[in-house]
Amino acid sequence: MRIERVSNTVSLKRNIESGTEEQQKVVLSIISDVRENGDSALTFYTEKFDGVTLNDFKVGIAEIKEAYAKIDESLIQTIHEAANNIRDFHSRQVKQSWIDLKNDGTILGQKITPLDAVGVYVPGGKAAYPSSVLMNVIPAQVAGVERIVMVTPPDRDGKIPAGVLVAADAVGVDEIYKVGGAQAIAALAYGTETIKGVDKIVGPGNIYVALAKREVFGHVAIDMIAGPSEIVVLADDTAYANEIAADLLSQAEHDERAASILVTHSIRLAEEVSQEVDRQLQLLPRREIAEASISEFGFIYVSKDIEESVRVVNELAPEHLEILTQEPMELVGKIKHAGAIFVGRYSTEPVGDYFAGPNHVLPTNGTARFSSPLNVDDFTKKSSIISYSKQALLDNGAKIAEFARLEGLDAHAIAIEERLKSM
Q: Where does this protein hold substrate (predicted)?
């Protein structure tokens, strides 16, 4: 890994979410086709991109039973335990509607309502992601969403990975469709003969999925435009080089554009981690992907002290941050920007990916400066409640009318004044 002294500016920005002009044209064409031709367009693109012809996109009970037969009982139990942890964490995020009665009789409040229908995109391709099922579905369920639709691309045999199906069944998803890519996003947004449209689409995917989500935004809501994964490790010379290297590579194996960064003021640790990354790379089954990621987006930044390390971390605003220092909790309060913060030696990032409970759908590409992990609030909407009393309108009506005329909106003022005349 490249070792560099900290400069004035560091960044995790990778400008790939806009896609190429050709990719944008392809996505627009697919969306238009699905809107116009529905299921026939889905069949065409599934044949073209996934190499399989499907007579029915919906996953049936027999396929789910077949999936269970392929998974060890111990792993099924682990999936259920992880689901319970995730549900427990997210249940603590639930907010209630509220009403406030003022002294003059006015009633003000906020009504929180779950979305009617949510679409969950589960990526396929380079790996299977049952954890994505749990992380996207469970907070929607906790929020009270009644209809949850899952889409995921099939393999060339027309199958979905067994672990994905078992995870979906474990949390009670009963609408699962074998369709992926931009065509799946279009189907969720606009509906087809088979797939009824939804109100919001969540879940990561490749560049075509990201572009499609961006294109349908406005007609439906989306969670975020997720970029490649990233990890930043903030460490001092009490940390273990082999463990840091393993954590960095745990993100590098996701994607060739994943970013893995160590920030430390220990040159000794920096050199040891660099050597250890090179050693461990040779042992990885996904070596080619991880090697490309480390080569292009792997860095070790050496700072002058721990304070500068913290500054660098806040400037990077990483998706995942591990703090591996002698007193890691002392630094948590100084971290302003990070999607998820893993504190201490035993809180390695995969703990959060799979089992601990907090959501692993996190802001990437520096967007942790203004974004949060996927949470229960993402699956609800808020309505304001205003019940103005007669006394309140008498007391404040003239002020409201004056304010309206300041903006040149006389009809607004008249709507107030017509009531005041009769009072």
A: 229, 251, 254, 320, 353, 407, 412
What are the binding residues? 121, 183, 206, 229, 251, 254, 320, 353, 407, 412
Amino acid at 377: D
Q: Which residues are catalytic?
A: 319-320
State the binding site for substrate.
Answer: 229, 251, 254, 320, 353, 407, 412
Q: Give me the amino acid identity at 22.
A: E
Secondary structure of the chain: what % helix, strand, coil (to 5)? Answer: 45, 15, 35
Summarize pLDDT for 77-135 with one digit per residue, the tens: 999 999 999 999 999 999 999 999 999 999 999 999 999 999 999 998 656 889 999 99
SS3 call for 45: helix
Residues 258, 406 within the same domain: no
Q: Is residue 75 part of a domain?
A: yes
- Distance in angstroms (rounded) separating the CA atoms of residues 74 and 289: 29
Which residues, in sequence order, are CB contacts of 53 under 8 Å at separation 6+?
A: 43, 46, 47, 158
Range of the domain at 394: 388-421
Q: What percent of the chain has pLDDT over 90?
A: 90
pLDDT per residue over 237-294, tens digit each? 999 999 999 999 999 998 899 999 999 999 999 999 999 999 999 999 999 999 999 9
Summarised one tens digit per residue, pLDDT across range 312-332 is 999 999 999 999 999 999 999
Among residues 4, 23, 415, which one has the least CA distance to residue 215?
23
State how far the alpha carbon of 342 is from the alpha carbons of 73, 128, 199, 327, 371, in Å. Answer: 30, 24, 33, 13, 18
The angle at the Cα of 100, spanning 98 to 106, to the nearest 5 degrees, equals 135
Of 364, 382, 383, nearest in space to 374 by CA: 364
Q: How far is CA 137 from CA 93, 222, 236, in A?
A: 15, 14, 38
Residues 43 and 177 occupy one common structural domain = yes
- pLDDT tens digits for 42-57? 999 999 999 999 989 9
Helix (H, G, I), strand (E, B) or coil at 299: strand
Residues 232 and 190 in one domain: no
Rounded to an integer, what distance in angstroms lies between the CA atom of residue 338 and that of residue 363? 8
